[in-house]
Every structure is written in structure tokens, then in C-alpha cells.
Amino acid sequence: MTVSFSKGKMGVLCPYYHCSKDCKEWQIAEVVNTAFTELLNTLQPKENTINLFKRIVSEKLKNNNTEASSILDRINKEISKKKQRIVNARALMLDGEIESIGFKSVPIEIEERITQLICEVSIDNSSMQNIEEKVVRATDMISNLGNAYLQSETAHNRRIVGSVFPTGLIFDDRKVRTPN
Questions:
Q1: Quick one: which of 40, 45, 130, 164 could link to 49 by a disulfide (CB 3.0–4.6 Å)?
Q2: What phi and psi values does residue 101 have, to the nearest 5 degrees?
Q3: Whether residues 58 and 109 fall in one domain
Q4: Domains identified in the chain, total number
């Protein structure tokens, strides 16, 4: 079904759902949305399920953080190594072992690589810091899908519907249900 708007008797636009094909079915959007929100509100996970979810995610995060820390250590070591190469190249130039013309390209190439590595470090750090916040938001949303649906924009609502009801829904007798 898709949504359209129709002018009511008072000239106010009213949303309604109708088939996108040749059927004559149509439903007032508010009635369908209320029924769907009621269905979502029945899908409240138990508190111990939410706590288990948090524990599993926390363990996974610890494993990922350990892995990420080793990656960050490797990147930081590479940055230090690159900086030391610049110092060594500068010393060789000052000692007359390499010409200044040959030296000029060395720091530029190394600084470009250092910049790339610093970007990698900052991306990894920011993604690791936001994980806990994301877990809290996800568990809050899972615990109250009805409100999440009512407060979200259309694109987010489509993700909710698609992830919770991958086989779709049927609106029948003023109630929303799964096809099975």
C-alpha cells in the first residue's frame, strides 16, 4: 500500500493508505498507524532479554576494542617510525650524505602518509567512543518500539517495519497482523 492525501468535507487534507495496484482498498492512515503502534507496543521484550542483549554487545565490544587497540598501536608505531625517518633524512642531508634536492621529496611523501594514518586513528577512536551511546539508544528503542515509531521519520519507520516484520503486514478488521 502507499499513502495519499484527500481533501475532507472541511477542506482539510487527510492521509489514507490505498493499494498501489488495481484494487479499490483504502484505509484512513490514522486508523492503520494506531493499530500498527498497538502491535508494536505488544512486542515489549522482557527486561532480562534486554540485559542479556547488553551483556552480549558489551562482550563483543570488549573483543572489538582489544582488536582496535592493537590496530591503533600499530598505526601509532608506524606514525612514530615515519617521523623518525624524517629526522634521519634531515640528519643525512645536514651531514652532506644526501643532497637537499633529494631530501625535499622525502618529508612531503612521509607527511602525506602520516596524515592518512592520523585520519585512520581518529575515525577508529570516534567509532569506538560512540558505540556505548549507540547500545543505549538501541536498547531504548527496542524497549519501546511504539514510541520510536511514532517519533521517527518515514525512512526510519520503514527500517523498523522491515527489520521487525520482514514478511510484511496485513491490515484486517482494524488490526495489523503478520501474513502467517
A1: 45
A2: -65, -45
A3: yes
A4: 2
